[in-house]
């Protein structure tokens, strides 16, 4: 019966499969493989993302071989993906739908690239107009196809150090933007000197885009937030709750709004949302028993990292230490807390407990073409 189903019916069924299940399905027989190739839209990332949550991808923060680990939240399973197609070790900057924006770790000058670890594709972006080291990077997706294999997006680069006219180095004040629609970098504005210094010295690469503003969190105590209003070309800064007590702090986007996650010394981890007038409102606290389990008996939140999407927030440490997850339920009416076991073994082979950097992405088996 299955081999006689019309392609359009079979493609509709395939659209409900997760990417790993779809890959196995297309290898079942020639008929099913032809269906996937014939109806790529019906089995595309856009439909798959409607039925499945984003996956958590963990890259080792130290050079432990060219590989990464991926957690499938649908069946609560870990996978090992080889990155041997990469010529250089990389670290993630941001996820763009099914792609990861990365930068090589063996080069001090900023160089960005796109990677799809599932299709084993890798492509460098053009070099920016200004050669700079250690700038802040922000990503903005442009339209409804942001989760497809070829999303339209922009990358903003601010701050960093560049070569001074008479030798030496200086803080770079020009703001550059890469546009995927024309594959070109443009100088689009300037950064006040104070912000350029903070973006260079105290800001990690992670950014959050919400309601027309790109935000970065400073990493120095006390924590603070810097924002760039894209249409108005305006920069502003403001504080965060418990700024001098937080041991870690991360910005996320939830329900379209700016969200802050942070943990205080010998205290709880909390989640706040930004309200009007740059005021923060407390919306949730990490359950104490899950927090203790994540910390492993320690009282410091300093080693905790956080990554989020519109549908989930993950707090994690090492690969094998497990993760605390606050996730939107399927009925969309409430969020609930879960514990996800760390990755200890894959296919019967033991996995070392590595320090990791995590990102969210929606797996896509269709190659990008830009």
Automatic annotation (TrEMBL):
SMART domains on file: FBOX
GO biological process: SCF-dependent proteasomal ubiquitin-dependent protein catabolic process
Domain F-box: from-to ranges: 1-48
Protein's recorded name: F-box/kelch-repeat protein At3g61590
InterPro entries documented for this protein: F-box-like_dom_sf, F-box_dom, Kelch-typ_b-propeller, SCF_F-box_component
Xref: Pfam families: F-box-like
Gene this chain is encoded by: LOC107940960
GO molecular function: ubiquitin-protein transferase activity
PROSITE patterns: FBOX
């Amino acid at each position: 019966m299955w081999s006689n189903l019309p392609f359009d019916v079979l493609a509709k069924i395939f659209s409900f499969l997760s990417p790993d299940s779809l890959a196995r399905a297309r290898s079942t027989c020639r008929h099913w493989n032809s269906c996937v190739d014939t109806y790529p839209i019906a089995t595309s990332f856009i439909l798959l993302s409607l039925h499945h949550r984003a996956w958590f991808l963990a890259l080792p923060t130290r050079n432990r071989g060219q590989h990464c680990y991926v957690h499938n939240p649908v069946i609560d399973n870990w996978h090992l993906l080889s990155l041997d197609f990469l010529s250089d070790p990389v670290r993630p900057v941001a996820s763009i739908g099914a792609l990861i924006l990365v930068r090589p770790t063996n080069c001090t000058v900023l160089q960005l690239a796109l990677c799809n670890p599932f299709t084993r594709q890798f492509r460098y972006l053009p070099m920016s107009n200004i050669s700079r080291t250690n700038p802040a990077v922000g990503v903005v997706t442009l339209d409804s196809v942001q989760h497809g294999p070829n999303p339209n997006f922009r990358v903003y680069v601010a701050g960093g150090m560049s070569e001074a006219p008479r030798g030496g180095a200086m803080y770079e004040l020009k703001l550059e933007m890469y546009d995927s629609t024309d594959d070109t970098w443009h100088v689009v504005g300037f950064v006040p000197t104070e912000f350029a210094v903070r973006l260079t010295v105290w800001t990690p690469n992670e950014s959050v885009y919400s309601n027309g503003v790109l935000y970065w969190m400073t990493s120095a105590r006390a924590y603070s937030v810097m924002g760039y209003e894209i249409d108005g070309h305006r920069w502003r800064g403001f504080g965060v709750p418990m700024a001098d007590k937080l041991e870690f702090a991360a910005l996320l986007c939830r329900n379209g709004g700016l969200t802050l996650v942070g943990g205080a010394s010998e205290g709880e981890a909390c989640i706040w949302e930004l309200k009007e007038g740059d005021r923060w409102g407390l919306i949730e606290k990490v359950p104490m028993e899950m927090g203790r389990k994540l910390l492993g008996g320690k009282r410091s939140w300093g080693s905790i990292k956080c990554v989020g999407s519109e549908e989930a927030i993950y707090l994690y440490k090492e690969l094998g230490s497990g993760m605390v997850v606050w996730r939107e339920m399927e009925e969309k009416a409430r969020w609930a807390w879960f514990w996800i076991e760390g990755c200890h073994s894959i296919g019967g082979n033991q996995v070392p407990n590595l320090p990791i950097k995590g990102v969210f992405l929606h797996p896509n088996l269709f190659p990008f073409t830009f």
